[in-house]
């Protein structure tokens, strides 16, 4: 995803730091406004993974640091839940002024409660997603229960949240306790997706049940089985990103989704943070990467993985077409492929790198009521699939530097 640092002004005139993330080689079909968890920031790893999934579906994402957190100005101790909602509205206003108003809100933990509240001030929003969100924002006071007595007595106290120290003032507690969640959720006026882990030890599953029951249709629930509250495992945050992206695009009109079309047949982009690479082929978004043992994040197949996939897909499609044309009973084709560098045969200098050749092995499984002659013919046809023939032909690659 292409990331640009931005800043915008909140209701108090303070500069909030954010990032705009764009899909590859196209204008986004819609914008997502992301609200992170309490005391987290825009660079949180789970937010990164979810944002990447959203951009792969052609969506733009704005994620930012709330007042007093991360790179944003202001003092965290002077903020409260209402000011967080105000920050979200300011972020939405920035998007509307610079790009287009957000159509999707995503909130993690207390950020989920905040997006439910902010929706009522944002008429452009068609869909809202909560991840591990509390039903009542006051639930977050349990995070600083040990300091609550001092806060009530002294008006403020320094508490430890997630291994970091934060000064909490009584006005935060008072503001949280004044929120009335049922009416906010019941009159949301947008599609709602509730995502929650049944083993969430920070915000119990009952919160998701209350949110879901309070909401009107269309409403959906997805259980994040085995995930912790912060989605600290990469596979959990990637799962969340993929599912909510699929769900959210349902609420974007077909005319807007047509913007995903690109004049370029295939476009590829690799940023400065590792090898994770965005690919756009027609209207389809893909990701390539390298394994972790060579410095990658393993967020997608390797380039050779895609090459093998192209050969395997072309092989199975070609066999499907041929069998259909012949009206043969071919029920299914399965192709297994591997790639390796091997020494050229009969080479007296086989220890030199340029004497190695690429070898692709392909195992084909044919399921169906086929006789031996039919199976033999299909194996011959496999070698005639277009990608196979391309790999055997002389290939000319013309490379130009964009000016």
Note down, in words, how this protein is organized.
The chain folds into two domains: 2-140 and 179-260, Rossmann fold (3-Layer(aba) Sandwich); 303-392, K homology (KH) domain (GMP Synthetase, Chain A, domain 3). It is 33% helix and 26% strand. It contains twelve helices and 15 strands. The strands form four sheets. It has an eight-stranded mixed β-sheet, sandwiched between helices. A three-stranded antiparallel β-sheet has the order 11-12-13, with no helix packed on it. Helix 1 runs parallel beside helix 8 and helix 2 packs across helix 3 (110-118).
Quick recap:
With 403 residues, this protein is an alpha/beta fold.
Layout of strands and helices, then pairs:
Elements: E1 2-9, E2 15-22, E3 30-35, H1 45-56, E4 59-64, H2 81-98, E5 104-108, H3 110-118, E6 127-131, H4 148-154, E7 156-161, E8 164-169, H5 170-177, H6 181-186, E9 191-196, H7 206-214, E10 219-223, H8 234-249, H9 254-257, E11 266-270, E12 277-281, E13 284-288, H10 303-326, E14 330-343, E15 356-368, H11 372-382, H12 386-392
Parallel strand pairs: 3-4, 3-5, 5-6, 6-9, 9-10
Antiparallel strand pairs: 1-2, 2-4, 7-8, 11-12, 12-13, 14-15
Helix pairs in contact: 1-8, 2-3
């Amino acid at each position: 995803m292409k990331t640009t640092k931005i800043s915008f002004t909140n209701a108090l005139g303070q500069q909030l730091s954010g990032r705009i993330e764009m899909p590859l080689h196209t204008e986004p079909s819609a914008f997502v406004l992301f609200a992170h968890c309490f005391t987290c920031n825009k660079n949180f790893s789970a937010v990164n993974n979810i944002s990447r999934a959203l951009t792969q579906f052609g969506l733009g994402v704005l994620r930012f640091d709330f007042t007093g957190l991360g790179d944003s100005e202001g003092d965290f101790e002077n903020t409260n839940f209402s000011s967080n909602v105000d920050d979200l509205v300011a972020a939405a206003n920035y998007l509307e002024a610079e790009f287009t108003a957000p159509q999707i809100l995503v909130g993690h933990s207390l950020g989920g409660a905040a997006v439910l509240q902010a929706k009522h001030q944002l008429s452009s929003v068609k869909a809202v997603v909560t991840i591990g969100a509390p039903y009542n924002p006051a639930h977050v006071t349990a995070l600083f229960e040990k300091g609550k007595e001092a806060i009530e007595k002294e008006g403020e106290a320094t508490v430890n949240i997630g291994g970091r120290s934060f000064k909490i003032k009584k006005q935060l507690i008072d503001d949280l306790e004044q929120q009335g969640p049922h009416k906010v959720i019941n009159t949301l006026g947008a599609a709602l997706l509730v995502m929650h882990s049944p083993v969430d030890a920070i915000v119990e599953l009952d919160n998701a049940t209350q949110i879901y029951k309070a909401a009107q249709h269309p409403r959906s629930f997805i259980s994040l089985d085995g995930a912790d509250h912060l989605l600290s495992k990469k596979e959990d945050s990637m799962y969340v990103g993929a599912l909510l992206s699929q769900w959210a695009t349902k609420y974007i009109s077909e005319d807007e989704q047509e913007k995903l079309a690109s004049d370029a047949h295939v476009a590829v982009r690799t940023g400065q943070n590792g090898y994770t690479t965005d690919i756009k082929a027609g209207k389809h978004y893909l990701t390539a990467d390298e394994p972790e043992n060579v410095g990658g994040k393993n967020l997608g197949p390797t380039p050779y993985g895609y090459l093998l996939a192209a050969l395997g897909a072309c092989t199975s499609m070609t066999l499907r077409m041929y069998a259909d044309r012949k009206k043969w009973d071919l029920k299914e084709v399965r192709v297994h492929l591997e790639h390796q560098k091997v020494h050229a045969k009969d080479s007296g200098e086989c220890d030199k790198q340029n004497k190695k050749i690429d070898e692709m092995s392909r195992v084909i499984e044919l399921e169906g009521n086929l006789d031996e002659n039919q199976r033999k013919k299909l194996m011959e046809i496999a070698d005639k699939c277009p990608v196979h023939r391309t790999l055997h032909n002389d290939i000319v690659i013309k490379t130009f530097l964009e000016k």
